[in-house]
Amino acid sequence: MNTLSNTLPQQVSIREVGLRDGLQSISAIMPTERKLAWLRGAYDAGQREIEVGSFVPARLLPQLADTAELVAFAKTLPGLVTSVLMPNLKGAERAIESGADLMLLPISASHAHSLANLRKTPDEVVEEIGRIRAARDASGSAMLLEVGMSTAFGCTLQGRVEPAEVLRLLQAVLDAGADRVGLADTVGYADPAMVRELFEAAFKVAGDRLACGHFHDTRGMGIANVYAALQTGVTRFDACLAGIGGCPHAPGASGNVASEDLAYMFASMGIATGIDFDKLMALRTKVAGWLEGETLHGTLWRSGLPKTMLAATA
Ligand SMILES: [Zn+2]
Question: Which residues does the UniProt record annotate as the domain Pyruvate carboxyltransferase (predicted)?
Answer without folding.
Answer: 12-281
